[in-house]
């Protein structure tokens, strides 16, 4: 996995798993996923 600047990130850790509710993703194959931190809401 590479950051946007091409730096290799080698210390990634699994942060969880999905047990159910992801049926819509089944069969997609390889995809690019981006995670963003959103500001907390009050």
Residue share in helix: under 10%
Q: How much is the radius of gyration in Å? A: 14 Å
Computed structural class: little secondary structure
Termini separation comes to 34 Å
Mean pLDDT: 77
Envelope shape: extended
Largest sheet descriptor: none
Structure, described:
By secondary structure, this protein is mostly loops. 0% of the residues lie in helices and 0% in strands. It has no helix or strand. The termini are far apart. The mean pLDDT is 77.
Descriptive key words:
single chain; about 40 residues; little secondary structure; extended
SSE order and pairing:
Elements: no helix or strand
Summarize the structure.
With 42 residues, the protein is low in regular secondary structure.
């Amino acid at each position: 996995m590479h950051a946007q600047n091409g730096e290799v990130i080698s210390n990634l850790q699994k942060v969880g798993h999905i047990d159910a509710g992801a049926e819509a993703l089944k069969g997609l194959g390889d995809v690019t996923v981006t995670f963003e931190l959103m500001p907390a809401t009050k």
